[in-house]
Specification:
alpha/beta, about 300 residues, DNA polymerase, domain 1
Length: about 300
């Protein structure tokens, strides 16, 4: 018996992509830029038209500075510029569009979109669902179980657990440890100095996980990896930092998400709400037709 699918969409990623790729000529009825809203809406319409998902959700980041990770490591994502007010405003409007289409929206000030997606996946797996994570973010590799897959929508590529190993050289259960070791520049996580991606993968292939590696660090100098002795010294020196980084790279599975399956079912949107949004956002006739067709 095939498992029903739930599509979990990394909404913030697609808002940012639209912000950077759509021309800034789009304005709402008040003259504010809405290029990201137009791009995100087209993406969401296309996905709903192609997949016709019965169960799904779109997750958004509430802030770059309020997650629990900022509390335990203030430098987390400190390398990123805060979204300008025009983009902040468009994030709210993108959520309104999703809700008007009857798509469940996930957002929380303590947990990031990754955590909300991970917690939803974990909960729905217990109900017999398989998850399709719509995102290009490598961090999601750690969530993929036997029946799950990740979908890089823009590139049209999909992969399951085996694809994680092909891309990163580690298995899904090792992804958080891998990122803790070699770092993640996107999130301003430095990793262990001198440990690059290939070394991190080689260490985890031998030891299995970060804890075993740090417990048996005296074995590292005897491995056939470049600079093994220096690597062992760095691991000893930065062991506690590596454990801290893993707390940052590990996606939380206990974020507050609805436990019941019906909460993830696409609802019937209201045409009047959509009409009002179309007027405010000055959507063109083609987009209006697509939105209304999705509500009919």
């Amino acid at each position: 018996m095939s498992r029903p699918a739930v599509h979990l969409i990394d909404g913030s990623l697609y808002v940012f992509r639209a912000w950077h790729s759509m021309p800034d000529e789009f304005q709402d009825a008040e003259g504010h830029p809405v290029n990201a809203v137009h791009g995100f809406t087209r993406f969401l319409c296309e996905l709903l038209e192609r997949v016709k998902p019965e169960h799904l959700a779109v997750a958004f980041d509430a802030s770059l500075t309020t997650s629990f990770r900022n509390a335990i490591y203030p430098a987390y994502k400190a390398n990123r510029e805060l979204p300008p007010p025009d983009l902040e405003r468009q994030f709210v409007l993108c959520r309104e569009v999703a809700e008007a289409l009857g798509v469940p929206v996930l957002i929380d000030h303590t947990y990031e979109a990754d955590d909300l997606i991970g917690s939803a996946l974990w909960s729905l797996r217990g109900h017999g669902f398989r998850s399709v994570i719509v995102s290009a973010d490598k961090d999601f590799g750690q969530l993929l179980g036997e029946y799950d897959e990740q979908w890089d929508y823009a590139r049209g590529t999909r992969w399951g657990p085996a694809g994680v190993h092909e891309r990163m050289g580690v298995h899904p259960y090792q992804v958080a440890d891998y990122l803790a070791l070699c770092g993640d520049a996107v999130d301003n996580i430095p990793g262990v100095p001198g440990v690059g991606a290939k070394t991190a993968a080689a260490l985890l292939a031998h030891f299995g996980n970060l804890d075993a590696l740090l417990d048996r660090v005296d074995e590292v100098p005897f491995l056939r990896i470049r600079g093994a002795a220096s690597c062992a010294a760095k691991l000893r020196e930065h062991a506690e930092a590596a454990r801290l980084y893993r707390r940052l790279t590990r996606i939380a599975l206990d974020a507050p998400v609805a436990p019941e399956v019906d909460a993830w079912r696409r609802r019937q949107g209201e045409m009047a709400t959509m009409d009002a949004l179309c007027e405010r956002l000055r959507f063109g006739p083609l987009t209006r037709t697509r939105l209304k067709a999705l509500l009919s």
